[in-house]
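Entry details:
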Amino acid sequence: MPNSPHTIDTLFASLVTDINFAMPTADEFPMSLWKDMANHDLLKKYSADKTAYRDIAAAGLTLTRLCAYPGLTMTWLGQLLKVRFLKRYADHAQDCISSILSGDSLCAMAISEPQAGAHPKHLTCTAEQRDGYFILNGEKAYVSHGPYADWFIVLAITSVFADKKQFSAFLIHKTQAGLSLGSGEQSTRLAPSSHCNITFNQCRVADKALIGTPGQAFEEISKPMRTLEDVLMLAPIAGAIHMQLSLLADYGRDEIDLDILGRCLCLADSAAELGLLSAQKLDQNTELPDLTTLIIGTRTLIDEVQTHLAPWLSLQPRLEALFNDIQLLSSIGQSATKVRIRSLTEQYLSQRRHLPQKGLADKNLSSNLYSTKSNDLR
């Protein structure tokens, strides 16, 4: 598999015993482990603005390969990205940023709503601006890490222009009057993740709680966050596959088909390389590139490995747990992914119709593979 920096292996290896001891039975987020990760500089080091996305992906690969809990890697990555967004869009968020990087708290993103999902057309939570403050009303659903987060980045409608809802983002502490948490729902997948609903009832927040440009929260935060998580989790998922293969390697030749195991190893290495390449392309662009082809291609390799491994899941409980986590991670944002695939297909067919000369058509299609969007990464 791709080489990971030796220092990353050293940093994470010292945590592995505690992770594997605490995670399976933890009913709440293991804050003591989170603190240990901060003390090993795994939060501040990788949240720095100058840290390359490829280095973050490589670290995530190593963490997942060593600890076998993709959910912990996803939490780590999510907090790093939230810190980056807060540094860029919220000058007043230093208390939140410091508490995350010191390992004392977590920040959760609240976008989805009951019976609506995360599609902006169906969201109804509002933030009405008054003289020097906003009043939030509505409910958010499936807020990952909501039960134990101290801070929330909340997207709410602040205006409607030409029948289109305009969303703004707010940084709100869990103790804010008018904010109430529903009961937590512990998941059997992606440990230590759990989620809950949040209700806002005449929740008053100061103007300074606003993050970023008013009305542009989906463009500045939500969409880039989804793309960055999709890209940066590819290599860590490959790391989870390597843990699966390590578990299988402990069994005898009579129980394991070595040809299939070898094929899975090659696919896992390829997925890891593609994940790191995708992250590197984030570093090479000042705007967010469209990496749909690499995301879909890597996920296809990941799915193929899981299909090969399915007959052996009963050999080891951890194999099936990893299988379930990997399946869930590969399906996140599936509806949006289908739309992007359809768009790429339509674009391809359109270009083929208008550029009948095969060589010219292929040249133009290739040049559009990594077309950029308007979101500045830096």
